[in-house]
Structures are given as C-alpha cells and as structure tokens.
Amino acid sequence: MKMVINGKYVDSESGKTFDVINPATGAVIESVPRATEADVKSAVDAAVEGQKIWAEFPVWKRAEVLKKFLQLVEVNKDDLAQTLCAENGKPIREAQAEIGNIPIGFSGFMEHAKHYYGSIIPQGTEQGQDTNLQLITREPIGVVACVIPFNFPCDLFDQKVAPALMMGNAAIVLPSSDNPLTLLKLTGLLCEAGVPNGAIQCLTAPGAVKEAAITDPRVHLVTLTGSTEVGISTARLCADNLTHTALELGGNDAFIVMEDGDVDLAVEELVWGRMYNTGQVCCASKRFLIHNSLKDEFAEKAVARIKRLKVGQPDDPDTEIGCLISEKAAVKVEAQVNKTVEQGGKIILGGHRDGAFYEPTVIVDVPADADVASDMEIFGPVVPIIGFDTEEEAIAIANRSRFGLSSCVFTRDQKTAFRVASKMEAGGAVINGASFFRAFEQPFGGYKDSGIGTEGVFSTFNEMTRSKTIVLKNIF
C-alpha cells in the first residue's frame, strides 16, 4: 500500500518500507512506505497550494464532496472493518462499529458548518464606538497536521479531518505506524470523492520523521491525540514556530462507587467502560474507587461478569476481548500489573500474558498510595480496586492524579452525584455510568496533563479557524 501525497499514491522518496503486523497472529499484513523528510516537504508544499483551492469551495460544496466520501465508505465498509480489525487487533464487531461511526461524525461536522456563523459588535456598545460597526468572521487556519493514535484511528480521523476540511483547511494525516492501513484507504476515498490534490494527504512517517511535519512553519495547527509525554514534546516543538496545538492526551479516570451506589449497574458499566477495545481507551475508567462496604461485593460480581466475556481472535464475530496493539504494549501492561502487586495489590482474576494478548485482570486490596492509584495509566483490560470510607477521601484520591480526562460516580442520591461531579478535576464527569463517554457533539478534552483544548462538533471549529474583525469605521 502506498502513501497519498498531492492526490497520488506514491512510494517513499527513499524507496524504503516497513511492515504492518497483525498483532493477534504476528503475520505481516502489508508493507507501507517509510516517509522521509523530503516526502514531508512534498506533502506540505502540496498542502499549501491545495488549501488555497479547497478554501475557494463554498461550505455547501465542501459538504457535497464529503457526502460523496460517505457514499464510498458505505460501499467499502466491510473491507474497511476487516482491515481495521486485522491491523488493530480489536474485535471485528468493534471495528464494524467504528466504521459505522464515520457517517455520524462527518455528518455532524458537515451540518454544523452550515450554521457556523460570524457575529457583529453593533455601534455604541462602548464609549467612542458610536459610529463604528465591527464584523467578526472566521477564516481557515491553513494547513492542519492530524496526528492520530492507534486505538481509535477512524474515530479520531472523523474528529480531526472532517472539521479541518469543512473549515477550508488542508489536512495532512499522520497515522500510527502500528496501524496506518485503514486511514490510508479513507484518505484515498476522500481524494476519489473530489477533495482537491494536496487538501487531504496521508503519510506513513514513523518516529522522528513526523517531527518534520510538526515543525514546518507552514503547518498552522497540530491536532494530536496520544500520550501526555508525546503531547508535551509536541508542544515544545510547536512553540518554536508559535504553531497552534490541540492536544488530547492521557487519562487515569476515577470510577467511584459511593456507599449507596448500584453495584450491579456499576459492574455492567465496568464491562463497557474498561473492557472495550481491550482496555485501550484514553477515557476508560482505570481506577476503581469502591466504598469499603461494597468493595467485596463489587469485586466478586466483577470477576463473575468478566469471566463471561469471550476472549479470542479479533476476526471471530463472537470475540469480545481481543489483543493489544502489540506484544510490546502487552509486556508493558504485564510489568504495570506486577508492580501493582508488589505495592500491595492481590490478583483475583487474570494476570497472564500470551504474546500481544493480556487476560482481563482484577486486582483487589490496592493501596491508595500505589502508583496505579494516581499516575500510572494502564492501557489494557485491568481493574485495580481501591477502597475508601468517605466521600472526601474518594475525591482526594481521584484528584491526586496529574491526569484529568474524565471521571464518573455511582450513587442513588442526585445531590451527592452533582456534588462529587463538580469536585472532580476532570474535563468530564458521568453520573451512574462509566467515564468512557464521548459523543461527537460534546466538547471533549481534559484538565491538567490530559490536554489542551477540546474536540467535537461543539468546539473544534474554533480550534481550526482564525478570527478576523472587519471594521466599518464611521459607517453611521
């Protein structure tokens, strides 16, 4: 498979490639070009010119092009889902659902763009402005580098590429080197639908080569979803050119069950909020703070419910838990679980690794000062249970983390629910549901080390445009 640069499928300038591996089987799926800095320069050159052409398309016409793209996605949805399943290791049902999200995400941005209006500051709103009228418009920011992670490549493609294009920007897609194939195919479909050459491109650029796109002064916005460490290093690189950044980063979300919480509901939400995508979710619930009076019941029911999940090959339609993105990722989860046990936790389910597969794991008796109770984000199907006695104690443990992406609380008392939700230092708080909640419409983003800016139909256009004030002086 080739890269997409300036409307063409191309090899790397160097001719070098790298393999994309099926993490469940270890088999090579496909080889892709290993982009060079020269390839990046060619892509940015094309983006600068393509953006000018695309920006001349009126909003309604941009939407028509993206409608054609959605028709092509519908025709190719089975192939896209199979590709995503193979390169990602997520269960085929989840891969199909993620492809099914593309028309939801794109349509939301397409429709909102038609109602993304400017504004007017009328005359006389302040002293000395009695004869002046100020018109505030929004213009494309320019070239947008879309750095997309492995865990939900298509969902994040929707969140970044759709708004970039609808606002008249050029988008350079930089997928994870672990699984770039589905995004290469989606980029090709956008070209086929009629997005002009250069306005949409996709580079397979591992490692430091991505930095060439991030640091090019002709790139006006870097929108990145990834780890906090990568986000901080990206922000430093962007600072040299004052490049705009939108960063959605790590999370270690607290899942709080109060003394009056519904344990059965909480356990069902645990399955959704922790086991989906084999636990590889930024806003997954990762720290389970359970009132000590319910802790044993919760652990027992969680184990029983998780045992019912089918672990298997991702392409099996009955599989509910697949593998992690790589054996390297599974080894890291294994080490983190072992560390949690060394710090006092006790495994009552799972705890074993087989290649890229890591068993769903429940750990009880986790001390409140263990690493996982604050800043150690485990990106896998692991449930560390931490006990507490008071509301204040639960909130203190939850807020001790440097992360603040999302959070949740289970209680039958709505006053308690809103009080705890308001005190959580996080960008989201779910009441009686897992913290894994992300609608396309919502402004999604975190506090503290979980990121800068928000993403979603509600807010992304503000990130991807510049404000311009046109003054009609002495018009009255």
Automatic annotation (TrEMBL):
Active-site residues per Swiss-Prot or TrEMBL entry: E248
Superkingdom, taxonomy of origin: Bacteria
Enzyme class, spelled out: oxidoreductase
Keywords noted in UniProt: Oxidoreductase
Ranges of residues in domain Aldehyde dehydrogenase: 9-470
Reactions catalysed: (2S)-3-sulfolactaldehyde + NAD(+) + H2O = (2S)-3-sulfolactate + NADH + 2 H(+)
EC assignment: 1.2.1.97
GO molecular function: lactaldehyde dehydrogenase (NAD+) activity
Pfam families registered for this protein in UniProt: Aldedh (PF00171)
Protein family: Belongs to the aldehyde dehydrogenase family.
Function according to Swiss-Prot or TrEMBL: Part of the sulfo-TAL (or sulfo-SFT) pathway, a D-sulfoquinovose degradation pathway that produces sulfolactate (SL). Catalyzes the oxidation of 3-sulfolactaldehyde (SLA) to sulfolactate (SL).
PANTHER family, per database record: ALDEHYDE DEHYDROGENASE (PTHR42991:SF1)
UniProt name for this protein: 3-sulfolactaldehyde dehydrogenase
